[in-house]
Amino acid sequence: MQPVPDKEIIQLIKNDASRHQGFELLVRGYSEKTYRLIRRIVITHEDSDDVVQNVFIKIWNNIDNFRADAQLSTWIYRIAVNEALIFLKHKKMFHFIPYFNVEKKLANTLKDDNFFKADEVEMHLHKCILSLPERQRLVFNMRYYEEFSFEEISKILNTSTGSLKASYHIAYQKIKKNLTAL
What we know:
By secondary structure, the protein is mostly helical.
């Protein structure tokens, strides 16, 4: 089945008679990439599913605020990143995890996650990524794994491409240094 263009999805959603059909197409078209993006931020499958559900609830409740001059994908991924970061912030506060221990705790959950299959090198790579500061980790994951352009990331995170390139470069150098130390 061919993907339905975003403009057509928005038209369906804006029409009360086809709102549910349009939203179903939106979820079908964006749920997988949204899940992957969120999974790289919150790490566990269960938490990622919860955050994805929250993202699509937020989209449903706010779709009338979507400006047609913006890209639908950018709007969705901005909501996804924000929801994932809010989730992490609440998780840190709820579990009283000191900020510097969060990445270590997330890295340890990888080993126990039945949905995460990796060999030793890949596991080490993921631990290296989790050791990065939150912003560098987010930029690295969006660029490297999700293959967003710096311009797309700039729109999603509402920041300059120059600072994103710097964050990505620093993250890349840290990961490279850690992996070559193996």
